[in-house]
Each structure stands twice: as C-alpha cells, then as structure tokens.
Automatic annotation (TrEMBL):
InterPro entries: YhhQ (IPR003744). Keywords: Cell inner membrane, Cell membrane, Membrane, Transmembrane, Transmembrane helix, Transport. It is a multi-pass membrane protein. PANTHER family: QUEUOSINE PRECURSOR TRANSPORTER (PTHR34300:SF1), QUEUOSINE PRECURSOR TRANSPORTER-RELATED (PTHR34300). It is found in: Cell inner membrane. This is Probable queuosine precursor transporter. Involved in the import of queuosine (Q) precursors, required for Q precursor salvage. It comes from the Bacteria.
Amino acid sequence: MLANRITLIYVLLMTAVVVASNVLVQYPLSGELFGIALGDLLTYGAFTYPVAFLITDLTNRQFGPRVARRVVAAGFVVAVAFSFAVSMPRIAIASGSAFLAGQLLDIAVFNRLRRQSWWRAPLIASLIGSVLDTVIFFSFAFAPVFSIFGPNDDFAIAWAPILGIFQAEAPRWISWAMGDFSVKVLVGVVMLLPYGALMTKLKPMPSLEKVA
C-alpha cells in the first residue's frame, strides 16, 4: 500500500536524522562569531537535529497525528538505544525524554494550527517543541536538581560569563542551552523552505481533508 511505503520512508528519514545528530553532537563547531567561541556552545548536531521537526510536520500534514506519533516513536527508540550505547545514562535519559516530549508537543500544536496559513503550523509547532526539547534536555542532563539521573558534570555547572561574552554569569549549561535553542530557531525558519516546496506534492489524506 502506498501510504505504508511513504510512512516507512518517513520512519527511515527520522532514524537517519536521529543517528546523524547523535554522531555529529560529538563534534564542536570551530571559529568565533561576535567574539563567541562557537565550539564552547554548539556542535554540528545542533544543525541536523531540527530536521526531525520537518519530518514530523510533513508526516502530520499528510497522514495526521496518529501516524506522526508512530514515526516519532520509531525515532524515540533509535534515540534511546543509540544514546545508551555511546553516552552516559544521564545523557541518554535526557536525550530520549527531550526528543519524545518535544516531538509530541510539535504534533499537538501543528494539528491545532493546520487549517491556518501554510507556514504558521510548521513554524510555531517546531519553535514551541524546540523550547520544551531544549529545556528538558539541558535540565535533565546538567542541572544539579536532576542528579538523580546521574552524577553532575562539574564543568557544566560551574559559573561562567553568559555565552562567554557578557558580564553576568550563569552555569555553563545555561549558555549551551541558549546557543542550542538559537540554532533551532534559525533552522526552524530555514526548514520552511523545503516544507513549502513539498507541501504541494504531499497532499493530506482525504480523511483529513473532510475534517477541514
């Protein structure tokens, strides 16, 4: 059945994005921007991970929230398995929890906005999902209050100038979260281009159109 084949493609794409992001997160960016050492804030994985929201939104547009949740579930299994294999349990828990919560929130917001302007649902859904994803991951991974998941990273919780350039200080993981979210916002806006190009080809299923 065509719908099953397309769904499988979405699952494979989501799996590829999750695996790529888990690999690329190990490689910091090089260079500086406005005096900020990018390697202290970002990895290449920050640029690939937001593509997961594009895949989720395209699935949701074409097949609805139920199928989108199945695609997210497949990505969640891969994320957790891969993270436990290559990183500490605390990071794996943070990664899996953030991915699942952020993507499910994206699906819910997208579904509420799908009848509005074509750009509104994917943009707002991905941004709101990214907020939750960022908060959960960096809090679970580094905030001392969540040390129940594993030992604290002394370097991450040490206080330092925010983003490495401001006089005000905060735990380093706060700056990491700010840098990561900034990239998610940027990539989320850029992802409107492929979404807009594909939405004319990936029409919603008739059952979804009848609900409109």
